Amino acid sequence: MKKITLLASLIAGLSLSSCTFALDQTDIQKISQQIEHRLAGGETTGLSIAVVKDNTPVMLQGFGLANTETQQPVTPDTQFRIASITKTFVTLAVLKLVNQGKLSLDDSVYKHLPDFKPKTLPNNNNVITVRDLLTHQSGIPTGWFRGDEPTTSPNKDLNSLAALLSDDYLVWNRGTISAYNNNAFGLAGLLVSRISGQSWQDYLQTEFFTPLAMNNTLSHLPNGPLPVQMAQSYSGTAQEPKFASLLTPAGGIISTGNDMARYMQAILDSWNYDSHAIVPSSLITRVRNVQNAHIQLDGDHEMGLGFFVDHFNGHIAISHDGSYQGYESMMYIVPELNFGVFVTTNNRDGDDTVFDIAKMVTNIATQSEKGPFLDNKNTQTSSSQPPLPKTLEAGFYAGRRNIFIEKTPSGEFVMLIPGQAIKQLKQVDSDSYQIIGEKGDVRIKLTQAIDGFRFTYNGRDSANVFSKLVTTKLTPELEKLLGYYQVETTNPEIGDIELRYSPEFQALLAVSVKHGFVRAMKVVDENLLQVQGYGRGIGTVFDFQEPNKLKALGYQFKKISTEIQ
């Protein structure tokens, strides 16, 4: 079972390193040249970077264009949507309430949100704690589109989230897998609002933006035209649509390089100097404690409390990224070095650029002196109990995509994903196979807990697990459910659904008419089906309990034909 090193837990509040690192002009020139190179190559449109060290911003700079039409340049005061980095504010807001004695991380969510009454699948339970919301372990459905609908009143709509989610099923028991979950963080933000007696917008303003002098930071996208200082966002050369949604606590905040420098420094001041800029050191250091060591379906990634945990040259960074509507962001904070970096861009195509630049800067910061932590990341099993040998099996694997593994007469394995070329698999160790012909080092890694695997990309694992297909015998009762279901909503992102049966694979398949994706289903009972696999967007329950009706994805569908269109 995964576990953080004893050393790390003993020195979670370690005093500052004696390392004298600071970005010098050579480092800044190297970073700037790399950013300019990415811009010149058309990899992104504009970029803002903030680096802090020892209470001082050592690099605050804008590159490229905030708006290609007006030729407005990016500056340290240009506003970008930081997207899911907003979740770190939610976590720290919850810790503020913990510090005030108003809740505990292990409180039941239902204690503070009595109108949240989700449905429970047979043989499952409905236990959810506040901690579960902040660590993506709650089992709340993630394949739920209601939260992405445009709204002009996000604070008012947020108050309805508990009731809306009560009309859906928990997809698995808490602690089954860390499945990235915007809905859970939306509920956590609602919980903060309910306990504090303030709207989420007002809470952010009074507890973060005003005291930290984050004067150009907003809780969400305002109605009407973009703010004058805000970067336009793009996908390639096309503008991205932009709107607010009710899930503002999961990804709504708009900020600048200057303001994010203040935010990172406040975290570091609280951590290293017990300044109470946000919360006492004894509380804020908890965000680095690994929360997913007990979860068998998780891979090598380490999930802290609302932050991810990353390793750099013997140092541990707390981190989060963000991606929404053409804005991409990345933040690393290394407390022992009193260091933080934030990078953001305004083009969907710039996601790799943001990650690479942030990682480059963090490597520069950490390589001058070896840190006190071991560099080995968590593994699925402890050293005292080595993993049992796993063998890849041919067959149909279900998840966010359908994947077919076949064994050739020569004994080699190949992989087929519909719409893609057949790829050869080369075994590289006891539980992983490299996919030949992919850009970079892409592998499938077998899971210990079930017959399935996850992907790894250049050593970074994907959170989604593909499980061996659970076959289904088509009964007369199930056959009645097959057909074409029309969605009853004006939301343009949701299309109709077809429920089909494949005799070849003995599989029930849900097909998105608009988007073309296919999900393998398993039977929960005669009126409930569930998407197979584990992870974000997986596990969605299809409820057929009303005749000729389907409830799924947060919407109602009406059966209009038994014939497949």
Task: Give a short summary of the structure.
By secondary structure, the chain is α+β, with helices and mostly antiparallel strands. Helix content is 22%, strand content 26%. Helix 2 packs antiparallel against helix 13 and helix 3 runs parallel beside helix 8.
CATH superfamily of the largest domain: DD-peptidase/beta-lactamase superfamily
Task: Report the uncertain regions.
Answer: 1-15, 378-384
Name the CATH class of the largest domain: Alpha Beta
Major sheet characteristics: 8 strands, antiparallel
- Identify the CATH architecture of the largest domain: 3-Layer(aba) Sandwich
Total number of β-strand segments? 29
N-C termini distance:
48 Å
Domain Beta-lactamase-related: 33-351
Keywords: Signal
Signal peptide: 1-22
InterPro entries: AmpC-like, Beta-lactam-related, Beta-lactam/transpept-like
What can you tell me about this protein's structure?
With 565 residues, the chain is α+β, with helices and mostly antiparallel strands. It has three domains: 6-367, 3-Layer(aba) Sandwich (Beta-lactamase); 395-464; 476-561, Lipocalin, CATH 2.40.128. Helices cover 22% and strands 26% of the residues. Strand 14 (403-407) and strand 15 (413-416) form a beta hairpin. Helix 2 runs antiparallel to helix 13 and helix 3 (86-99) runs parallel beside helix 8 (182-196). It is globular and about 70 Å long. The termini are far apart.
